[in-house]
Amino acid sequence: MQEFIAFNEQRAEIYWWMSSLLSRELSESDIAEYHGDEMLTFLSGLGMTSELKQPVEAFRDALNRLKTREDAQLELAADFCGLFLSTPKSGALPYASMYVGESGLLNDKPAQDMNKLMEEYNIAQRKEFNEPADHVAVELDFMGNLIILANQQENEEQAEAVMQAQLEFLNTMLLNWLPAFAKACDSRDQFGLYAAAVNLLLAFCHLDAAFLAGEEQ
Prior knowledge:
By secondary structure, this protein is mainly alpha-helical. It has helices spanning about 1-20, 30-35, 35-45, 50-65, 70-85, 110-120, 135-150, 155-175, 180-190, 195-215.
């Protein structure tokens, strides 16, 4: 049981890390941490999984290129704004409603679905993050909390039910639009750090879904 709890904590941390990375511009101190030994060790650990080796290497390559980028913090902030705070024509907006359905326009349904899930599981959106509930950072934060919720169950049967809910959420609320979001980032992030991050996220979500599906067999 302790291994189950520890493994879930590791999974949650990855979702929370990506939620943080995609929720705001990186500061100078954030960038320094990304160049530090702790991040290097963390990424090396992720890259030991064969399915994540290539996307981890791509992300590390972008971090290495950032070291020699002039005015790195300002330029990376401009990348963030151009991608995630722009328009559908020029950016890669991080909302599920941009990619779910055929209109390619923002709509209320994905956010409404997220709000219902947060109410159902009593998982609140971070108050300081004032974005619609279908923002990728909100969905990833929810997934992290849903993982920890499994650790808090009284017995294995209840924990298994929450694990099943995680798989359902991955398949219906994340993997239904993350591939299109990743393609949009690939085509519009010229420097490539955020595109590499989203591709790493996508690879991890596929890996996590496979793990959860195996748990249910």
